[in-house]
Every structure is written in structure tokens, then in C-alpha cells.
């Protein structure tokens, strides 16, 4: 059986990477343009179709987003008719729409509780065949479609079975005896991001000024950076960013994904956006395992206080490694679980 994997974000490539490799010629990979996604696939020699090559993105807003979703759905439909996969796998909502229209079973992998990303749930809940997510995550009124697992997306590629940190990948950036900090800006341009905010330039400047006396600051960003931040832009291959996250002394950003990545790697992570307190998997990482801390955008004081607190801990790295090791005794290798699940699809009732 052919399996179509639809990737809409760099994190989706990481999530499905080992399944794509496992299924080889039976895997059909399609993508939409997002950040460094296409670069990642090229660097790893993955064959793919880019369904956004034929039209321009245009401006943002709900109406523009809706038109882009429909345009991508049309392109996916064409590829399904040509290549005839027996199963559709991905995260972007338009995949579920096309699965429903074509009658091809679709497994939607997601981490955000559907009640907190209402437009996503409204589309995928009624149309997906199965909703695949961490066991702590809610599928809302479509819970009967949920298949949960004891893990997170990030442990499909950052589990020690797959990821071995390599200091040589960051030797040109991180010097022995120096402290290093990574700041991440995201675009917050998805359907469920409308009305949500994260790090502002002003807030980032405050954080940078706080960190510089303690070490070096590196910025990675989905959005264009003001000139004042350009000197801090990280110079590293997209395929090596997780090595940088592992060896960094701390991560601060408004990205859900990179916060979780830092956390499962045992790097202290501070998140600053309006999704804080709303997403079960990040609440799990914060309140059960103590690997990350989240602050809403109206709590600047809380973020700065926690930053000061962490900077003052003498053996911070060792403490976080212990917390990470505890997590890994409970959470499974998601890639291994995924390959088994997809190989034996559909699941037995």
C-alpha cells in the first residue's frame, strides 16, 4: 500500500522522517512551503512534490488563509488521483478534507488540543478517519476517533534511539566554557494562530540585554528580522539546529515546537505566547516533568523573573538532564510506534 505523507512545517518532516524512510518507494511526500522545510528535504535527498509552486501566498487574514487551504486541497486531490495512495498521513487540515472527498482513509497527527485550535478541529474532526495524538491531548467531541500514544511528536526524532548530539556541529558557534542562548521567533500565521501573539521586537531586546552579560545570544526566526537583530542570527544548517538546541544553555521563544524540542533534549526552555496554559502536551512537559515554563504575553514580569532565577542556578544543565532522563523512562519512541501503526493499518477494533 502506498502512503501519502503531507508536510506543512519543518517539524512535520522531523515527525514523519523515519516512517518515510521505512516505507521507501511506497511513501509519496508532498509539501507546502514553510520556513526551511524544502531545504531539509533537499539536504536529506527526499523526493517530494511542492504543491505551492503554482500560486502566490498573498496577504494574511482569515479569508486569504481559507483560499490557500482550498488551493492546496485542489493540488493534493490531483496527486491522489495520479498516484493512488491507500492511506493519507499528515497534520495540515486540508488533507482531511481531501481524504473525505476521495474516500481515502486519513490519519491526522496533531499535538494541540482541538478545543484550543477550534478552526482546525472543526475541519479535521468530522473529516478525518483517525485522530492521532499524545494520550494527554484532547480530541474533543471527536474523541471516538482518537488514537493516543504515550509520547510527544518531538520524540519521533529526538528520542535517543534516533538522535545523538554532536558537538562538532556547533563548534563554530559554541566555544568551551561559554554560555549560549537561543531565541526563536515564529510567524504565528496559521488558522489557529489568528488573534494570538508572541515575542515582540521590544520584548526580545529586553531578553537579549538580560542574557548578554552571561553569554552569547543566537536568534532563529520564521519572520524577517529587524536590522538590530541581524548580528545575532544563528549561522547553522537547518539539519543541525537540534544539535544547537541540545548544547545551548537555555531556549527562549514563542514557538510551541522548539519549546518542546528543547525540553525533551533537556535544555531549559521558556515560552512566551498566548497559547500558554492551553495545550496539554506542553502543560505535561511543564507541570509533570518541570522541563519548561510558559508565560502569556501579559506576564512579562513573570518571564523575566524566571529567566533571572534560571541564570542564577549553578548546575542548571545537570538538573535538566536528570529531569529529561525521568521523562524518557515514561515516554516511548514515537517513530517506532508510528511505523508499527501504519504498517498494520487499519487498527483492529
Annotation keywords:
Rossmann fold, 349 residues, 5-stranded parallel beta sheet, alpha/beta, 12 helices, 7-stranded parallel beta sheet, globular
What's the layout of helices and strands?
Blueprint (H helix, E strand, L loop, with lengths): L2 E5 L2 H14 L3 E5 L5 H7 L5 E2 L11 H22 L3 E4 L2 H10 L3 E4 L8 H10 L2 E5 L11 E4 L30 E6 L15 H11 L4 E6 L19 H7 L2 E4 L2 H9 L4 E4 L7 H9 L3 E4 L4 H12 L4 H13 L5 H10 L6
Parallel strand pairs: 1-2, 1-4, 2-3, 4-5, 5-6, 6-7, 8-9, 8-10, 10-11, 11-12
Helix pairs in contact: 1-12, 3-4, 4-5
- The rounded Rg comes to 20 Å
Q: What does the main sheet amount to?
A: 7 strands, parallel
Tally of domains: 2
Calculate the terminal CA-CA distance, rounded to whole Å.
20 Å
Instruction: State the assembly state of the protein chains.
Output: single chain
Global outline: globular
CATH class of the largest domain: Alpha Beta
Please tally the β strands and state the result: 12
**Low-pLDDT windows of residues:** 188-195
* Count of DSSP-assigned helices: 12
**Beta-strand fraction estimate:** 15-25%
What class, by secondary structure content? alpha/beta
Strand arrangement, largest sheet? Answer: 3-2-1-4-5-6-7
Mean pLDDT, all residues = 92
- Please state the second-level CATH architecture of the largest domain: 3-Layer(aba) Sandwich
Q: What is the element string, with H for helices and E for strands?
A: EHEHEHEHEHEEEHEHEHEHEHHH
From the 3D structure, determine the CATH topology of the largest domain. Answer: Rossmann fold
The helicity comes to: 25-40%
CATH homologous superfamily placement of the largest domain: Glycogen Phosphorylase B
Amino acid at each position: 500500500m502506498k502512503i501519502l505523507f503531507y508536510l506543512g512545517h519543518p517539524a512535520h518532516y522531523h515527525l514523519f522522517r523515519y516512517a518515510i524512510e521505512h516505507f521507501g518507494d511506497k511513501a509519496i511526500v508532498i509539501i507546502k512551503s514553510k520556513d526551511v522545510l524544502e531545504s531539509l528535504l533537499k539536504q536529506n535527498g527526499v523526493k517530494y512534490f511542492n504543491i505551492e509552486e503554482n500560486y502566490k501566498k498573498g496577504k494574511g487574514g482569515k479569508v486569504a488563509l481559507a483560499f490557500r487551504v482550498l488551493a492546496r486541497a485542489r493540488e493534493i486531490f490531483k496527486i491522489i488521483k495520479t498516484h493512488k495512495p491507500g492511506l493519507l498521513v499528515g497534520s495540515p487540515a486540508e488533507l482531511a478534507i481531501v481524504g473525505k472527498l476521495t474516500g481515502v482513509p486519513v490519519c491526522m497527527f496533531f499535538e494541540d488540543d482541538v478545543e484550543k485550535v477550534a478552526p482546525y478541529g472543526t475541519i479535521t474532526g468530522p473529516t478525518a478517519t483517525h485522530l492521532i495524538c499524545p494520550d494527554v491531548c484532547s480530541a474533543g467531541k471527536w474523541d471516538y476517533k482518537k488514537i493516543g500514544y504515550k509520547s510527544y511528536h518531538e520524540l519521533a526524532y529526538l528520542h535517543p534511539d534516533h538522535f545523538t548530539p554532536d558537538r562538532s556541529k556547533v563548534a563554530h558557534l559554541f566555544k568551551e566554557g561559554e554560555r549560549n542562548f537561543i531565541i526563536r521567533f515564529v510567524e504565528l500565521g496559521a488558522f489557529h494562530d489568528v488573534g494570538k501573539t508572541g515575542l515582540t521586537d521590544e520584548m526580545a531586546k529586553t531578553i537579549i540585554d538580560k542574557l548578554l552579560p552571561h553569554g552569547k545570544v543566537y536568534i532563529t526566526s520564521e519572520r524577517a528580522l529587524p536590522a538590530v537583530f541581524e548580528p545575532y542570527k544563528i549561522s547553522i544548517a537547518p539539519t543541525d539546529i537540534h544539535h544547537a538546541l541540545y548544547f545551548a544553555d537555555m531556549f527562549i521563544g514563542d514557538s510551541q515546537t522548539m519549546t518542546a524540542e528543547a525540553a525533551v533534549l533537556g535544555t531549559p526552555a521558556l515560552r512566551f505566547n498566548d497559547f500558554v496554559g492551553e495545550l496539554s502536551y506542553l502543560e505535561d512537559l511543564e507541570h509533570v516533568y518541570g522541563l519548561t515554563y510558559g508565560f502569556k504575553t501579559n506576564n512579562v514580569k513573570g518571564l523575566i523573573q524566571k529567566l533571572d532565577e534560571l541564570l542564577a542556578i549553578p548546575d542548571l544543565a545537570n538538573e535538566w538532564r536528570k529531569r529529561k532522563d525521568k521523562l524518557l523512562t515514561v515516554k516511548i519512541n514515537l517513530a517506532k510506534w508510528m511505523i508499527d501503526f501504519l504498517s498494520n493499518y487499519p487498527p483492529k477494533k
